[in-house]
Amino acid sequence: DVSVIFTDITGFTSLVETAAPELLGELLNEYVSGMTDVVFAHEGTVAKMIGDAIEVLFNAPGDQPDYAARAVACAQALDAWAEAFRGRWKARGVNFGATRIGVHGGPALVGNFGGARFFDYTAYGDVINTAARLEAANKFLGTRICVSATVADAVQDFRGRPVGDLLLRGRSEPLRAYEPLSPASFEAPATSQYGKAFAKLEAGDDNAMPAFAALVGAHAEDRLANFHLKRLLNGAKGVRMELE
């Protein structure tokens, strides 16, 4: 049983095509170094780096009873570091994309799968694919971190807000997902307001639309609230949604 973090950078392919090689090398090396430092601080295992994507494992190779909590804390720390990194480079005139993060947990086949000549300690299984799908879901939701209920339910006093029941590509059943929040954001009145609006949405209450409209009116920067309001305005109902 493992928790998996999967990260990716928004618009990185376009940056590769337009940035000078020296700049790209400096950017990527600083980014990867900072992100791996955060992972190691939480005692995670960097299983793979594929271009700008990073795959992280918890509870492998060593036992970590609190692996779900470690994964959520690490995801939030990665998000904070990546956003600060973006800000530093934006001040230098470089628009570096946001880092999207997906977190899921479950059984995986873990070990060396590099054959006789290449050591490749990694993990295989649906849990890996689902973490990657949750990472990609952020693009549609407007969030930067998407954590499955499997992980959130295993974390004592998890602080976050529900995103919805996502029907991800390759899965037959929807998966409840959450956006983790900092303690300050979790205690903010806007989070309580979101929770009430989401409860109306989940119950099929027609008052869900005005509830989300009021939330967006007061907090226009809330991209997840905007996402749900747009869904409602387009005729969608409930909290189940199919994403690519």
If you had to describe this structure to a student in words, what would you say it looks like?
With 244 residues, the chain is α+β, with helices and mostly antiparallel strands. Helices cover 47% and strands 23% of the residues. A hairpin with an 8-residue loop joins strand 5 and strand 6.
Poorly predicted regions are none
Count, helices: 9
Distance separating the two termini: 26 Å
**Proportion in β-strands:** 15-25%
Spatial sequence of strands, sheet with the most strands:
2-3-1-4-7-9-8-10
User: Which structural class matches the secondary elements?
Assistant: alpha+beta
Summarize the structure.
By secondary structure, the chain is an alpha+beta fold. It has helices at residues 12-18, 21-41, 67-91, 126-141, 149-152, 183-187, 189-203, 208-218, 223-233; strands at 2-9, 45-50, 53-58, 99-106, 109-112, 121-124, 145-148, 160-167, 175-180, 240-242.
Features:
single chain; 244 residues; alpha+beta; eight-stranded mixed beta sheet; two-stranded antiparallel sheet; 9 helices; 47% helix; globular
